[in-house]
Amino acid sequence: MMSNNKAHILLIEDNPNNIKLMEMLLEEQGYQVTVDTNAEAGIINAKELSPDLILLDIQLPEMDGMEACRIMRQEPSLEYTPIIALTAFAMPGDRERILENGFDEYMSKPIKYREFLDLVNKILTHED
Ligand code: MN
Q1: Which of 28, 42, 44, 99 would bridge with 12, disulfide CB 3.0–4.6 Å?
Q2: Residues lining ligand 1 (ion), CB within 5 A?
């Protein structure tokens, strides 16, 4: 569906290189991207913008992505918004822990371009 390329993605990530890379990849696909570099600002924007997808880094300054995800899920407007966890430290059992926390999916960093875009496209296409 072409309209998916107009989807709005909120990226909450504190690493400048990862921001630059993901923003470029997503904008190349036609997605509209909003970036926040900390969880508090990200939660505010998630509520205000109602993005189609949230990419949420687990390792953030002060409040981490796990807590931010739990807070977002308590917000009625964000209960069903797809949220993908981004993490640089993939450990055995992490995926289960992350999904149980309320995330829809999980992507380890450094991201692989094709895998990353396939996941984003898949989630946005399956969303009605
Ligand atoms: Mn980080």
Answers
A1: 42
A2: 14, 57, 59
